[in-house]
Amino acid sequence: MTRPEAAQWPLTLSANGSVMAWQEASVGAEAAGLRISNLLVNVGDVVKRGQLLAQLSEATVQVDLAQQRAAIAEAEATLANAKVDAERARKLDQTGAISAQQINQLLTAERTAEARLEVARARLRNDEIRLTQTRIVAPDDGIISARSAMLGAVVQPGQELFRLIRQGRLEWRAEVTAAELGRIKPKQGVAIEAANGAKSSGTVRMIGPTVDPQTRMAIVYVDIPANSGASAGMFARGAFDLGATEVSAVPQAAVLRREGFDYVFVLEAGSRVKLTKVDVGRRSGDRAELTTRLPEGTQIVASGVGFLNDGDLVRVASQQ
User: Closest Cα partner for 271 from 311, 308, 318?
Assistant: First the structure.
């Protein structure tokens, strides 16, 4: 014989969802018309912020830089001559040695030379920026999740060459019904099992602000540790930790299942047993939760219930 015992059982909420990248960064080309001369990473590589991922050909950019430096030198020489002529014109302005038209032409030539020098310098800065753009670097720490760059290919502005999982962080996006959302809070613990069998402990980061009007499901975002063993795109199951509740538990061997209902045999006066219908909730190990409240002190048959019928006479082992 046994009696229902009070016990603290953990309360959980089960859900399904997918493991996804926390954030992905698209790494592309800014320069146009340059060939990829070297590739240094592949899918799955762990990279650091600023690490070189690919190198574009620098030859044409270096030629343009040399041309712009020469153009600046020429513009500086032209400006120097124009300044000398303009200064002489300013000195002769009051003497009448040259006409006002000539003076105006010399002063205009000085301003034109200054403007041309600024244009040449701007072009040089543009080519210097293009030179830096020949280095494709990682914008953040992370893991390379995709690579579309091909050695020898000519890149175009905005073309994606790599995709990066930022900081290598993954998250589990659990699908939860609207009715269950109120039971979930940020920072709650979650036990997660991925499709490959990898188990990990996550933490609720945030609850999606909207509910899908078609499915009435919401997304709960759960942070997963980096060493979880899961991969982005993988299916996973999880259980949200909702705390613990006090239950009335009995051995599972004491519960008899007949015609779709659960029963226990209650000991009555005269050592006879009465078949009593009960509601069974959760099961844990060899224990089952009775959601039906039985009178305090009730004794029930602990095992062998399959061999008993309502009203059978039994002998209690502790009374032999």
Answer: 311
